[in-house]
Amino acid sequence: xxxxxxxxxxxxxxxxxxxxxxxxxxxxxxxxxxxxxxxxxxxxxxxxxxxxxxxxxxxxxxxxxxxxxxxxxxxxxxxxxxxxxxxxxxxxxxxxxxxxxxxxxxxxxxxxxxxxxxxxxxxxxxxxxxxxxxxxxxxxxxxxxxxxxxxxxxxxxxxxxxxxxxxxxxxxxxxxxxxxxxxxxxxxxxxxxxxxxxxxxxxxxxxxxxxxxxxxxxxxxxxxxxxxxxxxxxxxxxxxxxxxxxxxxxxxxxxxxxxxxxxxxxxxxxxxxxxxxxxxxxxxxxxxxxxxxxxxxxxxxxxxxxxxxxxxxx
Length: 314
Fold this sequence. Notes:
CATH architecture of the largest domain: 3-Layer(aba) Sandwich
CATH topology of the largest domain: Rossmann fold
Radius of gyration: 23 Å
Oligomer: single chain
Order of helices and strands: EHEEEHEHEHEHEEHHHEEEEEEH
Low-confidence stretches: none
Number of strands: 15
Number of helices: 9
Strand content: 25-35%
Distance between the termini: 66 Å
């Protein structure tokens, strides 16, 4: 088939490659414009643009995709594939191909519609998630489904390890979906079940307090492990110190006391912290301006011990 491909970040690159590996023609790749990055604010190309250039494909980077409606219609594509493009596509643009625009979404729709489905599924403690390939319509992740596949999520898995598993599943499902469409087996099943949202993450979503339940802190750490990272504020001398959480766990223990109290410093570097309720095991943290280190080493630097508050004097 003759395809259009819409995508921007690195997570979309394997899907672009999969379209070609399956023997389809990619008439054009659309990605976001280059953006300033780094200390020098030099323009940096999206990962999909770099991959498309390497593969010898035509690249378009419109500020407003709808401006290219007539140009894209003239390419006479059979369908479009969309993976993390990062722009809203209007109905006039969605009509430029014969079959429509198929979006790869990293959740089991209608659960976790929105910009951050993987992060929110983990932050909500889901034990199962997956990938949905659906046809775009005027709504936000509301269109009919072509294929859907799920996988189990272990209780300690984080976004760093879950993203690659979802990408691998999605690539396999895309290959099957393209084969189905090429053979005339189009499926447009309505989404079923309760809808939930996965909005763009905010700075407040990443901030945790030890008055939160231990399970919620653990799940936020898991969900934000690939960025931006969950964090809490500790006291270092007369100033507040931002500390990122990288590895946490839930302790099978009970204790009483004010949230933030250090319950136990473990021999293997873990630290048990009283939450509200539950006990959180801190394994690995990163104080601002420093490298990642075991939680017990962080406590030594602040001269804290069991019985003290990790938040500093209270």
